[in-house]
Amino acid sequence: xxxxxxxxxxxxxxxxxxxxxxxxxxxxxxxxxxxxxxxxxxxxxxxxxxxxxxxxxxxxxxxxxxxxxxxxxxxxxxxxxxxxxxxxxxxxxxxxxxxxxxxxxxxxxxxxxxxxxxxxxxxxxxxxxxxxxxxxxxxxxxxxxxxxxxxxxxxxxxxxxxxxxxxxxxxxxxxxxxxxxxxxxxxxxxxxxxxxxxxxxxxxxxxxxxxxxxxxxxxxxxxxxxxxxxxxxxxxxxxxxxxxxxxxxxxxxxxxxxxxxxxxxxxxxxxxxxxxxxxxxxxxxxxxxxxxxxxxxxxxxxxxxxxxxxxxxxxxxxxxxxxxxxxxxxxxxxxxx
Length: 337
Fold this sequence. Notes:
alpha/beta, Rossmann fold, 10 helices, 28% helix, globular
């Protein structure tokens, strides 16, 4: 499925498996051995390429990219918009449709970019191909001459995000415009995005997987709106287990548990609905641990005014994504040494 030169580095891609168990071999953000134990939404969205990147330095005058997609999410979710960046600089966007896609890219002058990039998060000579937030990619080919990323091209700090469709990037324009990406950029960190639209249920299997990962420097866990759709006892047990086990498994890393972002449940229940109840539970659990590396951030405060939401009163608009990212990164900076 991948026809890539060895110099190409994959980011946020851990493997592949047959799409939904029977389709073509497709990129995955979590191992297949974990995916099969999760809820149906997570099983599907694990194949979506939010936050997935190809990274390299370009040695030829141009390069050509071929992408084959076997599924594209709805346009209301941001659909299949890919992006090419040179370091921190956006170069171009291009839509990914179901089936074959091809684009040829001519790079900018990297010396010009370096002149205006004094303290870059990503080096301007690094080419970054960002795959869409809601597309399942079952084939990639690159034509050109490439070199591997060099030391200093990529941030030394990594932040892991787990959460719902809001973390995955529903209603954002691209993988770079999710709130998690906005926040990571303002923290000068590299983002690992394992958000699942409709599928963030904090299952014990997911908790064990997160506890076993050690490829990040800090973590942001959106204890989000998907939990409100579960039977309350199961939701409460799952999130308690996640908070307690994950916090102790990564006692050497800052961990931020984010309460539910503003949503319809707040507005239609006079701010006394299940969303607030669940925020209170998460805050109480974090406070009860009393660990120096574990913090609660109240997601309810992340959007003012609430017109930063889309019309479903759940998913942030692109402007709302930027606002949430700025809020969360500011809250994290206040708590970090």
